[in-house]
Amino acid sequence: MQNGTQNLQKPRERITSLGKIGYDEDSWGVGVSGVVDAPSPFSRVNQLRNWFLDDSPWTIDAQRAVLATKAYQQYADAPQPIKVAHALSNILHNVDLHLVDNQLLVGDCAAPPKSCPIYPEFSYSWLVHELEKQPIRERPNNRYDYDDNTKAALLELADYWQGNTLSDKMLSQMSDDEMKGDFMGIMLYSTSLYHVGGIGHLVPDYQRVLDLGYLGLKQQVQEQLDSLLGCNDADPAITERRNFYRAQLITLDASIHYIKRYAALAREKAEAASGQRRDELLQMAENCDWIAEYPPRTFWQAFQLVHFIWSIIMIESNGHSVSLGRLDQLLLPYFNNDLANGTASREFIQEIIECHAPLNGSFMKLRDWLTTQGNSGRGLGTATITLGGQTSEGEDATNELSGMFLDMVAHTRLVNPWIAVRVHDQSPDWFLQKAVKAMRMGSGEPKMFSDTMITKAMINRGIDPVDALNYVIVGCVEPSVPGKEYGWHDSAYFSIARVFELAINDGYPLGMEHLGRLGPATGNLADFKSFAELQQAYEAQMEYWVELHAQGTDIMDVTHRDMKPLPYLSSLVEGCIEKGMDINEGAAPYNFTGPQATGVGTVADSLAVIKQLVFEEKKVSGAQLLAALKANWNGYEMLYHLVNSDKVHQYGNDNDFADELARYATNVYCSAVENRPNPRGGVYQPGVYTVSANVPFGQVQAATPDGRKAHEPLSDCIGPVHTEINSHDRKGPTAVIRSAGKLDQVRMSNGTLLNLRFTPSSLSGDSGVSNLIALIKTYFEQGMHLQLNVLSRELLEDAYHHPEKYRGLTVRVAGYSAQWSELSDELRRDIMNRTEMSFD
Questions:
Q1: In sequence order, what DSSP letters do the residues of 378-432 get, joined into one string?
Q2: HEC states along 700-760?
Q3: CB 3.0 to 4.6 Å from 198: which of 101, 192, 319, 659, for a disulfide?
Q4: Between the CA of residue 77 and those of 116, 182, 241, 269, 421, what are the distances in Å?
Q5: Is residue 72 part of a domain?
Q6: Does 476 qualify as catalytic in the annotation?
Q7: Angstrom distances, CA of residue 294 to CA of 218, 283, 288, 308, 554
Q8: Nearest by Cα to 416 from 365, 487, 480
């Protein structure tokens, strides 16, 4: 067994050179999503998939919370970096380990498989409330089970954490003004994501550990610590650096020990196994023993090491969307070497890749009940793998592994990990065809990104062109530089539709005037004498609310720095070891803060209605339209149907009148956000995407002039409006991409998102594939990101009424895919109501 996998599996070869043919994509089906019993050619993978999807409950687990709390108590007087390092060390030394039957990879989330760990250091009062008053195990969706012992263990921690969590400290520092627009107030914006969890949204420098091993990384830290010998001990800066390096060494030692514990577990399991499984377990033990300290020698070891690096970051930070980066580039040398020396076959490597999907999918986050209503689905905030694209020299980087990871999508049809495909002028046709054939299966994977537009946007934001060419996607849509960027992507959802509401109502929220004037006095629609006055009001409200939002976000930033340093993660990002600074202090080369706008189509069509009907055609007065909104269109049915008809200009139809207003609406937002300094020495950068926040934001907003009624979802990402009676895009997908392409997306360097939904029949056959590739290439001349749902209205309606028939049905929500059965009712209906397109 010295050379790895050569004795384990030698099935027939089915993957040809460069993955151009691979497994038969034509057998993947069209629009069937995850509703297939055995999609993988590997029985092992199908068994793991069935285990993942079976009816056994998802649970919550108290062990991480208890171990972290004990360390916080034991090291109460220690400097904060030392305290958090000991918390991670206590978890890695003492948490129970698990090894799933048939798996070829190991590494839990500090909880049993299909279970959520708890991170009390971020927020805790909501968990106590729900355990006592709103049981998590009785939720209609995103339900998690637990026994009475788990509940009691978690409630015992409540007194210690009351008033001591990050969220508690943030809220104690925010003014009433900073709270009034946040999720604590009218939810014009929401910073809740970084109250309840870590930042994440990055790709660490996996290459550093692959090259050095943990011992080599530890040596780098030790050398920096040794260099401080003889320095002035009275200098606080020297003391802080020493504490930082000591904390890093504690976490690296714990990581080595943790991985060796898995080696011991695999050997223990091997004693009770026989035949091939015994050989596999012994090799897994050898893999873990080796990579605990040294650089990997095989693909299997390298992939296992990447998973450990990633999983320990998750255990330390609870970060959302800590991603896996360009695995087709990172793992290629090991792949080629294994094939050259006969260590493993292509097919066995494919099997390893596919085993990763259910393992990665077991890493789930417990969210509060309110969050699950707008952002439901267990996989939200998971890891993204980025495929294809270009090298730092601008050459095509697509390779055989790129195709094999797409095969993983087709063969597992699970929510995790997410797959991002980079597209450029020289992307090979075989790769684009394989990606599109995977998309038309209906699972929502992969999502597609434009190298041309994203690199332009990153360079425009000050990123070196070489780094920009190496970009990865983190989370739902956000471009990032691997190992060099702490982007604080997804820092807040920001409703430009709510800003617009305040602009037409003199700073008062419609329907909630009793709260008083919340924004500046900018006049109301009944009094505006010109469209220019409306624009001035919108611009003034935008400046005001972006500034308030940024003040609160900066408080969060500083609180994370002070209370939750990340010594382990900081060993994996350029600049931290070299400077002796935590990543939260701004040690990374690139430091951004990225909020994202919600409601582009809503504002664009609202502006169009007012400009056309009020000021140009004078068919209705501003006072009448404002009264209609306050009445939620009741009594104004003729006007309601007019603004929802094709007699008014609407975004999404390649209509310059409306599209220019969409560009204006987003440019006002970008101007208010971009290049504002943040506490880490970087700047704010705007994104324009909603993920699924358009649903909860819509639930708290009154009717809008575009024909949306109160509480309906806002428009989705940068897509057109769809109200409860119709969709405003009427001219097909080509018109939609032309409208979206008119937005100034180079300014939106935190990312954009365009969702489209196609009828399965329109993408069938070679012509369907060719048409979709042409659509993607056309859009990517001006747009950054495109993703699809390929599921019929009939199928979704049947799944809505009979979810038990659709085990494994996966849909594209927005920036993420999720299992249909786990979505809230509101989100299911929002997806069903999106325009169903075709190329006819």
A1: TTTT--EEEEE-B-TTS-B---HHHHHHHHHHHHH--S-SEEEEEE-TT--HHHH
A2: CCCCECCCECCCCCCCCCCCCCECCCCECCCCCHHHHHHHHHCCCHHHCCCCECEEEEECH
A3: 319
A4: 29, 34, 18, 41, 48
A5: no
A6: yes
A7: 11, 16, 10, 13, 40
A8: 365
Q: Is residue 840 part of a domain?
A: no
Cβ(119)–Cβ(319) under 8 Å? no
Give every strand in the sheet of 418-423, ordered side by side: 384-388, 418-423, 447-450, 785-789, 754-758, 836-837
Domain count of the chain?
1
Cα–Cα distance measured from residue 659 to residue 157, given in angstroms and rounded to the nearest whole number: 53
Q: Extract the tokens encoding 547.
A: 């500034």
Phi-psi region of 344 (alpha: psi -120 to 50; beta: other; left: phi over 0): beta
**CA pair distance 342, 620, nearest whole angstrom:** 77
> Which residues of the chain register pLDDT less than 50?
1-22
CA dihedral over 776, 782, 787, 791, signed as positive or negative:
negative
- DSSP, collapsed to helix, strand or coil, labels residue 436 as helix
pLDDT score at 822: 74
Catalytic residue (choose from 286, 400, 478, 826): 478
Six token digits for residue 137? 């195990």
Give Cα separations from 21 to 78, 132, 419, 424 (angstroms).
58, 55, 20, 21
pLDDT value for 377:
63
Six-digit token string for 157: 């921690």
Burial category of 188 from C-beta neighbours within 10 Å (exposed 0-12, middle 13-18, buried 19 and up): buried
Cα separation, 614 vs 607, in Å, equals 10
Give pLDDT, residue 544: 98
The tens digit of pLDDT for each residue in 85-127 reads 999 999 999 999 999 999 999 999 999 999 999 999 999 999 9
Domain limits at 672? 493-752
> Do 625 and 501 touch, CB atoms closer than 8 A?
no
Nearest to 751 by CA among 814, 836, 823, 833: 814
Residue 620 lies in a domain: yes
Residue 555 belongs to some domain of the structure? yes
Is 9 in a helix, a strand, or coil? coil
Contact between residue 37 and residue 43 where contact means Cβ atoms under 8 Å apart: no
Token couple for 138: 């009785």
Q: Are strands 754-758 and 836-837 parallel, antiparallel or unpaired?
A: parallel
Angle between helices 236-271 and 206-226 (to 10 degrees): 130
Ordered alpha helix ranges (H), 442-582: 451-460, 465-469, 496-503, 531-563, 567-570, 576-579
**Which residues, other chains included, contact 591 with Cβ-Cβ below 8 Å and sequence gap of 6+?**
485, 486, 487, 488, 678, 680, 681, 682
- The yes-or-no answer on residue 478 being catalytic is yes
Catalytic residue among 476, 576, 670, 717: 476
Tokens of 833: 């109501």
Nearest to residue 594, comparing CAs of 455, 384, 748, 815?
A: 748
* Whether pTM exceeds 0.70: yes
